[in-house]
Amino acid sequence: MRNVKAKLVYYSRLAHKKGLTGSFGGNISVRVRDYIFIKATGSVMEEMNYSQVGVMKIDGSIVSAIRPSSEYRLHLGVYRNREDVRAVVHLHPPYSITLSMFEREVPMLTPEAQLYLSKVPVLPFKPAGSEDLARQVSEAMKNHDAVVLERHGIVTVGRTLREAFYKAELVEEVSRLWYQKFIASRE
Predict the structure, then answer these.
(1) Residue 62 region, left (φ>0) first, then alpha (ψ -120 to 50), else beta?
(2) Which of 46, 47, 71, 83 is catalytic?
(3) Active-site residue, 139 included
(4) Per-residue pLDDT tens over the stretch 129-152
């Protein structure tokens, strides 16, 4: 299980390093059988370490002394609806958040986005950590590997943490291109 925690720490720090989330924002989880390894609540992505990884069961019971992220419901809902998913990445990237205030769907501006993402809807705002948000995301993720949350961030999934992470990076890349074409060019 140390390897799972090492990957969670690595990708949490990488998300911050690449500007995909700041300070307390975002959370990442990995499913191993019926166990969910997830960033602890209040942890800073840039400073993540092994002691800041909580462990839960798919039924929602907490099996570690570490309190999981306040978004744990969102992660559990996705895992319960998608047997193929082994990782969930929720980040707060700036261009995706900006796009969410103007668009209802992320435009697939690159061949890679079309190939790996297909379609990325923008979901209406729901309060962070709420049951409403968890329900909305888990329902949308039945048919999508990525969604953007209005004024909140993105959620991506994958069969591996690496796959889910790079889908998140791809959503942000396309959002940055959209911003450069439609917003920055007007200034």
Answers:
(1) beta
(2) 71
(3) no
(4) 999 999 999 999 999 999 999 999
